[in-house]
Amino acid sequence: MTRFTVNGQPVHYRMDARTPLLWALRDASNLTGTKYGCGAGQCGACTVHIDGAPARACQVTIGSIEGAFVTTIEALSRDRSHPVQQAWVAENVPQCGYCQSGMIMAAAALIEKNPDPSDEEIDQAITNICRCGTYPRIRRAIRRAAQAMRQDSGIDAAPPPGIDPADAARAVPALAPPAGKLSDR
């Protein structure tokens, strides 16, 4: 039995301690913003913060983070007001969108650690893979978010059309089982 905190909520997983954090988050907590990409820690689609540092959730076992604080994309900012999320929209970064939650989490951790990263520092820190190849827009978005955070100013970027921010950011109970059968999802 493993206990730690996910998005500010204490959790107690009754799963094998060798279970990857990715599957505990997705299957037991229904936090599906953390994506499965490669399962080998290479692509970064599953990036979350563990005690404030970026980590590939597919490579971290729940038993190895007893007592830790985990933050997923769902809790970065529930209303999408985090400067990285706003810069992503303003710079039109997403294409297919699959890598975006992991990329945003990696970028947020970078800016927290280094509030004025150079392109070289961005390239070294953000090793996530974007199969759509939006790397120039990703760098611009990271620089834009970093500037907004340094100046404590917002970024004028609306949420994607047709999505009410309240719906997109609704709170999910930490241990709620997935609804319906697998074929219904």
TrEMBL record:
This is Isoquinoline 1-oxidoreductase. CDD domains: fer2. Keywords: 2Fe-2S, Iron, Iron-sulfur, Metal-binding, Oxidoreductase. It holds the Pfam family Fer2_2. One of its GO terms (molecular function) is oxidoreductase activity. It comes from Sphingomonas oleivorans. It comes from the Bacteria. Residues 151-185 are annotated as: Disordered. Residues 164-179 have a biased composition (Low complexity).
